Amino acid sequence: MKNEFKAIVINNIDNTYTAALQTITTDLLPNNNIELDVLFSTLNYKDGLAITGKGPVVRTFPMIPGIDLVGKITKTKSNEFQNGQLVLLNGFGVGEKHLGGLAQKASLNSEWLIPLPVKLSPKQAMQIGTAGYTAMLSIIALEKQGITPDSGDVLVTGANGGVGSFAVYLLNLLGYSVVAATGRLEQTDYLKQLGAKQVIHRDELSTPGKALAKERFAAAIDSVGSHTLANICASLKYGGVVTACGLAQGMDLPASVAPFILRGISLMGIDSVMRPKPDRVEAWQRLAELVESSYLDKISTEISLPDVIEAANNLMAGTIRGRVVVNCQL
Questions:
Q1: Rounded distance, CA 3 to CA 26, Å?
Q2: Segments of the chain assigned E as strands
Q3: Contact between 102 and 329 (Cβ < 8 Å)
Q4: Orientation angle between helical segments 122-144 and 162-173, nearest 10 degrees
Q5: Residue 250, phi-psi category: left (phi > 0), alpha (psi -120 to 50), beta (remainder)
Q6: What would the mean pLDDT of 189-212 be, rounded to a whole number?
Q7: What is the pTM of this model?
Q8: Beta carbons within 10 angstroms of residue 175's beta carbon
Q9: If 3 and its partner were Cys, which of 26, 216, 291, 323 is the partner (CB 3.0–4.6 Å)?
Q10: Phi then psi for 175, rounded to 5 degrees?
């Protein structure tokens, strides 16, 4: 039948939650001003939660998951983009409340899209995905607060995770001295290959600590939150900066105002979902200039849409390391 395409479709009918590869028609797509063929998407942790139903990610049903995608425009009602143009999307509730990227076709709002940087292939952009994009946003925030490689050690928590591993890699490329915090010290060699100068156990930061601790770090990129973020604040040098982009340990922040007042530190929140377009373009241009294709190939595996459900279950079971790229046209 004309205009059929394959997609991962999540449903919740009579409290029965299902996710399956289905063949659907373009009639089911929303009436946005851009239609495109999805070339590559990714399998993020949020997508894993959505597909397995282990987290309340999906807001409306039926839903196509996939918070990242690169596609080629097939129809446009926007003066900003042309047919045949390659575009990139991260966030904006796509895959949660708007039909997402784990499909062969998508209909999207042009405000959510940016042009794919010339130096990146569609696959490379999805090897980077939201994880690398969020890490780059964090680094740009540190730079804008005056942090340079001469400032001192930069701590990265959750260093084995998607954002953390990209942050270690990118900071090292930019000449920073990186301290990586992880719960898996058996991954020390891997983190040092990424560029970490020192690897510490996350337990050094994850339990209740003092309002002010010894000054250790010039800056930090934190994806953990809770006591870890509080202890980072207490351990920053005078004028230090920490970016908060995750809450793996918790949403709470049991911290003191002491380091903010007595050491003049800054806490910067990093949102990747609703970020304004100029910030997105800046971050992706920096990524296109910095990231090496050999690194991306080393940290990622490629699958196709029929493999997504199994891969999502493996991701939630913790048996997948690195990035999972989905070739949506296979």
A1: 6
A2: 4-13, 16-25, 34-42, 68-76, 86-90, 105-108, 113-115, 154-156, 178-182, 196-201, 217-222, 236-244, 266-269, 300-304, 323-327
A3: no
A4: 70
A5: left
A6: 96
A7: 0.94
A8: 10
A9: 26
A10: 95, 10
Q: How far apart are CA 119 and CA 122, in angstroms?
A: 10
Residue with tokens 């990118």: 170
- Distance CA(169)–CA(191), nearest Å, equals 9
Question: Concatenated DSSP letters for 16-79?
Answer: EEEEEEEEEEGGGS---SEEEEEEEEE--HHHHHHHHTSSS---SSSB---SEEEEEEEEE--T
**Banded pLDDT at 2 (limits 50, 70, 90):** low
Q: At what angle do helices 122-144 and 277-290 cross, to 10 degrees?
A: 110
- Give the closest residue to 275 by CA, choosing from 137, 175, 103: 137
* Preceding amide of 62 cis, omega within 30: yes
Q: What CA–CA distance (Å, rounded) separates 63 from 324?
A: 20
Distance CA 224, CA 202 (A): 10
Locate 45 and state its tokens.
Answer: 């942790």
197: closest CA among 170, 177, 182?
A: 177
pLDDT for the residue numbered 148 = 98
Instruction: Name the one residue in this structure whose structure tokens are 């949506």.
Output: 328
- Angle at the Cα of 52 from the Cα atoms of 9 and 13, rounded to 5 degrees: 55
- Phi and psi at 10, nearest 5°, equal -105, 130
Q: Alpha-carbon distance 299 to 131, whole Å? A: 12
d(CA 165, CA 169): 6
Q: For 205, phi and psi rounded to 5 degrees? A: -125, -10
Average pLDDT over the chain, rounded to an integer: 96
> Can you give the pLDDT at residue 204?
96
Cβ atoms of 184 and 203 closer than 8 Å: no
Show the tokens assigned to 270.
């990093």
